[in-house]
């Protein structure tokens, strides 16, 4: 489970979760920013909206991540339950979006050892947590009062997508950090 990237360079990472609200401005916002997000999506939100996410993945350099099919709390659940949620999300995306995710984020950031085993057995090479998040257009920090090099920032596909993403970009700039692809730092 990776919470933060160790780097002495002024880099920061953005992740966008769930996929519940399909803001039509997201494609252009991500494209023009060059922000390289990882999208941790739930199949339940992608279903019926494949083109929306396919376009973002194809045109922005965003990377697809696995976030389970139904967004359950996985902690304490049997291995088979956890594997079904994680593997089915990856299988569906491979079929419907043409990309198989290899990064995983547990819903709510909640997990146990079984989750990590299940993720590995579903082909995930890393599980990704976060160190800062954006809510209602405000960046919130787990430590201190600014973004630090290596921070992984969480936001969501919500009604406030544009506001949240622009708040992240402004905060990164203010703190002297450049958003770069997380996948370049996972070895
Ligand atoms: Zn989520």
Automatic annotation (TrEMBL):
GO annotation, biological process: carbohydrate metabolic process
Among PANTHER family, the record links this protein to: GLYCOSYL TRANSFERASE-RELATED, SECRETED PROTEIN
Q: Where is the signal peptide?
A: none
Which protein are we looking at?
A: Polysaccharide deacetylase family protein
Q: Which GO terms describe its molecular function?
A: hydrolase activity, acting on carbon-nitrogen (but not peptide) bonds
- Check the record and name the InterPro entries matching this protein: Glyco_hydro/deAcase_b/a-brl, NODB_dom, Polysacc_deacetylase_ArnD
Outline the extent of the NodB homology domain. 10-187
